[in-house]
Amino acid sequence: MNYQAAVPPLPPPAAAEAVAYLAAAAPPAAGVAAGDPLSAAHVSAAAVETRVRKRLRADAPQVLSAEESVAAAVREHALLAHHAAQQYPGAGAPAWFGPAIENAIENAIRPLARQVENLTGRVDDIADMLNAKIENARIRSINLHCFSAGLPLGAVLKETTGHPLREPNNPVLAALQRPVRPGTRLPGFAFFPANGLQVIDLRNEHLNDLEWFYNIDLGPAPIASRRKELETYLLR
Q: pTM here?
């Protein structure tokens, strides 16, 4: 007797704490492919996975979502349904049952996979932000020496994700792929050349573009106050 449809393994939980707990408690239940022979070991492993996730959900709901817990129970019942349909043919399920169960499992797992993908993206952003802050500490140290000597200031890397809602004025910025990732270096502009910037030369439209790129707030007018805020941002 064989499985009539695939029953894939569960994706790992989104939280690293949950992944570590589950790995220590029991190995993840392996998936089965359509045509694989029925095995009670598959059902037993799925049952253990369900119990472990339920226990973690009860003890630490902040690290395992309800969806991640229920997905294990859905998968366990899917395996049981395959066994019941073939071992008790008199009470067998209709032909559409196997594909329907497979579809239900995929629908349960798909949001979890998106959560993992989103978490991976956030982890990458955090790593880029930390690397940018480390490099910016070096740039700002140089800027402090330049400032005390009356020399132009260098551009720091983008540290903060996202952008203000308004669009930038500069076409080079407007053409950048959105969102600009942390760690990106400001493109060279006529108003902020590669050899450095004299803040006093900036106009409001330039300041607005720098606010957009860095996702910072330089405050309202007057322009002298906004220039001072940018100067502080490049030096602090």
A: 0.49
